[in-house]
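Side project, low priority. Logging it here so it doesn't get lost.
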Amino acid sequence: MAVETREYRAEARFQRVSPQKARLVLDLIKGRGVEEALTVAAFTKKRIAPVIHKLLTSAVDNAKYVAGEQGIDLDVDNLYVKLALANDGPRMKRIRPAPMGRAFRYQRRLTHIILSVAEREAAGGLVTKVEEPAVGPKAGKAKVEELKAAPKATKAKAEEPKAAPKATKKKAEEPQAAPKATKKKAGTKA
């Protein structure tokens, strides 16, 4: 039986900021708990941050109101920001004077901001506390045997580097044989 999670949303429409600038702040709070998101929005140094803080507070208030009206048991501490969008609004066309009587056109962008909060699902099947195994006489012997086995493994690793220098000595002998062959060739030509 699937439990339906409720979403509570708030919108701020026709905000005088570009969507790109609003998304900078919305990306900071997306997926965070409501309490942490309110703190981040309060201390972010962007012009749209106070509007987003107010909008998030409104979404939490909407959640409290709807839960009270419908008789839903809502834990406000368990709310998180599920959706944070900044969509394009209408664009205002403006003209700026330019040199020699010309005019440059530009657009003032508006934004529709949508925030949605939902309650986190309780993790029922996950283990929250790890229990350590009881240390008995058998467990103690196993640990001692593991410690004894560890030094043997290090001794085997220590023997391997000794074998490597032997191989390098053979390689060192081969280059000595090569110069002898060149001397003979040089001697036969002369």
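Brief comment: The two ends are 99 Å apart (CA to CA).
Revisit when time allows.
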